[in-house]
Specification:
This protein is mainly β and about 500 residues long. The protein contains five helices and 32 strands.
């Protein structure tokens, strides 16, 4: 049985992911401060619970991904003179893998509707932004016909453009007065798109023996498409659309055969639904997303910034530790507009909550909802989904201050009393003023619990150690969210005040 997953399916999945940001909370996470077994060759992440569990164990920071931090994207094909490009063809079985669209040095994006006889040498930017029609045959042109699609806005260039991918958006509302000129132009392109237009007729057989140009007749379920052709050496050598028509989903082309011993054959290339430019995410197969998250130093004291990381991840709907379980019917148990997850449920019908994306509903255990009131008449328990801009996901102990020379990054330490070895941890960051030591525990340390009765010392040493005066839990409940993405990498060193920009491109 032959079957395919279509580009529309992939695009639909991409759309749902982007849209889900309004109904869920996503966080970019950093972790794995300690080295891999072979630090030059990171471990391969696998699709299993073990990989997710160990990710949480090694995580030390996360930052919220906002709607402005994510965008559709597609492959970036830079227009370069002397390069041969492929024309869009609605019957091409592998169009997605071909360079049928380009981006210029001015960040204008064009779709190739007809390729020339060879390499492209006429920069479409010479004509540039043309919000209706096409950039076609002009004097000294190379035979290529380009359709201007949009211009990547300057903010998107800075935030999302990479060497391999470029942002791609469908505008859903008219840009405001004074908006980026590229957005205004794209809005015009979308509005001027012609559904079912035929911009190109492909010559499949040139024919033999023509003494004059045959008449071209286009028939189908649309209207008004018309074309002429030229003949050279008894064969058809070019076809020009004189009217692209509208409304075609299928069409046939017939030519007069007078004077021809072998008739030419020509077939139409019909544009995508809505027309070229109506939805560039569809036209350019933009079933990728770019996620851009900027970690600025310690995010105003929220996260460690003095250790390296070897893992990045995307987490959906992690739970705040302090609100891990709250009584649903208690006064003030919810904040309007915040997200919550149902842990247990008695009475399920209530007007004070809403399933994500709705204004009413009957949530079930495990479901995330958005509060529309401060209290509920229902019964059960809820947990608040993380809302803050950034979280420190480490455990902590407080020990005497001014021990920075001992408690350095990745320092392995243990708790002991009277020489008895207790819990073990790996230092992520130590505050030399407050004495707060943030640490992680993983398989190498075990998961023993530190208490205020413990002294801390280097793992395996016999030193007297330093008294623990307080212990603290992570600000986010480990294993509470869904791990959506994991990347293992070589070490990236963080330093106080340093800024890291993380761009992830996720393919659907």
């Amino acid at each position: 049985m032959a079957a395919i997953i279509t580009s529309k399916f992939r695009l639909d999945s991409t759309n749902k992911f982007v849209e889900s940001l309004s109904d869920n909370q996503f966080y970019m996470a950093l972790g794995r401060p300690n080295a891999w077994t072979d630090d030059a060759s990171p471990d391969t992440p696998y699709e299993n619970d073990y990989a997710s569990n160990t990710l949480w164990e090694n995580m030390f920071a996360m930052k919220r991904v906002d709607a402005a931090d994510i965008v559709h994207c597609t492959k970036r094909n830079l227009w370069v003179s002397g390069t041969t490009y492929v024309e869009y063809d609605d019957q091409d079985s592998n169009i997605e893998g071909k360079t049928y669209f380009v981006i210029s040095d001015n960040n204008n994006v064009y779709m190739c509707l007809r390729a020339g006889a060879g390499a492209s040498t006429y920069n479409p930017d010479t004509i540039g932004v043309q919000t209706s029609g096409v950039i076609g045959s002009v004097s000294a042109n190379d035979g290529y016909i380009w359709k201007y699609m949009y211009t990547v806005p300057a903010t998107d260039v800075t935030k999302f453009l990479t060497s391999s991918f470029m942002p791609c958006r469908k505008l859903t509302e008219q840009p405001a007065v004074g908006a980026d000129a590229g957005l205004t132009a794209q809005w015009a392109v979308q509005g001027n798109a012609i559904d079912g237009a035929i911009y190109n007729l492909k010559i499949t057989t040139a024919g033999v023996g023509y003494t004059s140009a045959p008449t071209i007749t286009i028939s189908g379920d649309g209207s008004n498409a018309a074309a002429t052709c030229t003949v050279s050496g008894g064969a058809i050598n070019s076809v020009t659309m004189t009217n692209v028509g509208t409304g075609y989903t299928h069409a046939t082309v017939t030519l007069t055969t007078s004077g021809s011993s072998t008739a030419a054959t020509v077939r139409p290339v019909i544009g995508p639904p809505g027309g070229y430019g109506a939805d560039p995410t569809n036209d350019l197969r933009a079933h990728y997303v770019t996620v851009n998250t900027v970690f600025t130093g310690d995010e105003s004291g929220s996260i460690p910034d003095s250790n390296d990381f070897r893992q990045i991840a995307v987490i959906k709907n992690p739970i705040e530790k302090a609100t891990e379980s709250a009584t649903l019917s208690a006064a003030g148990c919810m904040v309007v507009g915040n997200f919550y997850k149902i842990l247990t449920i008695g009475t399920s019908s209530d007007a004070h909550w809403a399933t994500a994306g709705s204004t009413s509903g009957n949530p079930v255990v495990g479901e995330v909802f958005k509060s529309i009131a401060t209290t509920s008449s229902g019964s059960g328990t809820i947990a608040q989904v993380a809302e803050a801009a950034a979280y420190n996901t480490c455990k902590s102990v407080t020990i005497p201050a001014s021990l920075a020379s001992t408690y350095v990054a990745d320092f392995a330490f243990e708790g002991h009393t009277g020489g008895t070895v207790g819990a073990k941890g790996i230092c992520v960051e130590y505050n030399n003023t407050s004495g707060v030591l943030h640490y992680i525990q993983n398989e190498s340390t075990g998961f023993g619990t530190f208490t205020t009765s413990h002294l801390t010392r280097a793992t395996g040493s016999s030193g007297a150690g330093n008294q623990i005066s307080a212990v603290g839990n992570p600000l986010v409940n480990h294993h509470s969210g869904d791990v959506m993405f994991i990347e293992n990498r070589t070490a990236t060193t963080r330093a106080a005040g340093q800024v890291e920009t993380i761009r992830l491109v996720i393919a659907f």
